[in-house]
Amino acid sequence: MENQNKNTTIFELNGVPPFGQALPLALQHVVAMIVGCVTPSIIIAGVAGLSEAETVLLIQVALVVAAFSTLIQLFPFIKTKYFVLGSGLPVIMGISFAYLPSMQSIAEEFDIATILGAQLVGGIVAIFVGLFIKRIRKFFPPLIAGTVVFTVGLSLYPTAINYMAGGTSSPTYGQWQNWLVAGITLTVVTVLNHFGKGIFKLASILIGIIVGYIISLFFGMVDFSAVAEAAMFQLPKPLHFGLKFEPSACVAISVLFVINSIQAIGDFSATTSGGMDRMPSDNELQGGIVGYGFTNICGALMGGLPTATFSQNVGIVATTKVINRCVLGGAAIIILIAGLIPKFSSLLTTIPYCVLGGATVSVFASIAMTGMKLIAGENLTFRNSSVVGLSVALGMGISQASAALSGFPSWVTMVFGKSPVVVTTIMAILLNTVLPKDE
Asked: What's the pTM value of the predicted model, to 2 decimals?
């Protein structure tokens, strides 16, 4: 009976599962997020013209901040009458692509310090959103949350396909070798998901990545030169980049923080509905968003770019039903180690894009289907179908044809033309409010 309880602990929020069972599941989360977490920092470092040493520092801090933010969300340590710091839900935090277009514009016109100053202000705004989330939540019933989660999944499909093709920045993008490795990786993941048992089913994504990684070695896709050049140990340097407060940058980033605070409702809902068969409580949402704001303030002081919940890890939770906080806490510790030992993080980043694409496309599909389940839980009347259909159509359509906004100021394109989730969320709330309710 005791062994049986230990084996089922991974499917419970609390409790300490056996190390041998928790480690591969934690690694699965790390592998799913590691490249996505460091890539925005690499891009922004290039735009801002940072030196090689400062680029390495920005990447390392990204991992440290991701680990710190994840641990705050998993294990809230401040609980007062008025607010909780952290959601207590099984989520992984990391540097978000949602802010990338705005950060690129700020880095081109100003510098990294201006991004971090705007991030600090945005974190304060997110805390206020979290404190009043109980009043705001009425605008996000399951129909709206499901629409947002569904759009999150759809918006990630091009990322997965580009990864499967080798990554858009790669000179080998689109070559058959990438698709072969990606196809084998996806096949392994799919077969283990449907026919595997025990740890083979739960760690299907990790096993698929390992198989794909080994095959990619024979095609010469792995470059270990970055590992050889990386240092053994490096601590973050708080305020190394400084802080600058430019009003236009603060406004642009703060708007994104409000939108991403609301989007977090979708990720928290996808986590609880997919992994725990329920919706998140008001206190969990409030603690999650307040924690999101707090950790971004700390991240700005440490020199790390803005973080958000990682949808691919939400998909893993929904797919495997592994919700134990110690498993995800173990992933956070590994991420922290990667941030302190550059050689370790460099090894993780040698995984080819095609392998990651083949492994994560099923995860992104799982996110979309989680949203679909939330939507299907409502009566799909003509009114509700209009809310979902029009919101997704406008969100996905505008983001895929963002040049259609070229006649507007550039900040309009940055906010509304880059992420389908922004437009979908606004339209879903608006339509759900103004369209007449069903009798």
From this structure: 0.72
